[in-house]
Amino acid sequence: MRKITFYLSFAFLGLSLSAFVAFAEKPSISNVQERPVNYKYIENELLYTDLEFFDGSSVTLTDILKDDKAILLDFWYLSCFPCLKAIPHVIELQEKYKDNLTVIGINDIDTPEMINRFFTAKEANYLSTFKTEVNHTKNAKVTAVPTMVLINSQGQIIDVFNGWNKRKINKAVKSML
Length: 177
Prior knowledge:
By secondary structure, the chain is an alpha/beta fold. The chain is 44% helix and 16% strand.
């Protein structure tokens, strides 16, 4: 009986140490993309594409630029926790700079109904695209979400943010406007 207790204790100790080692090391989690987004696609194609939104409306980004407004593209989807965490702050940005900035959500995964329910619940003050045959996220080579692309009123990409960093994004938007 002593041998069994000894071996069980030894096995338990070994498993405990294994678990400690496994969980003590923090995995390397990064929202930084290995490759940069495709600037040419965004500046030469996406700006001129007729974007359909979950509410049935549509617009081209060049139409927004004609109003002398900057654009913040938010590449996101509903199953992305960091994306959902960022949305209240994105709503605040849109409200704070509504005269000079237009936020557009780019979502190539979720249906219009799903986005509509979510945006209604969050009382979102901006629009988002939804899943269609054209995958803007893939074409723009966005591989990490959320990714925010800040475009000035002349249609030039000013900055790209991988992941949500409220301070950096607020600072970039404020200094650009």
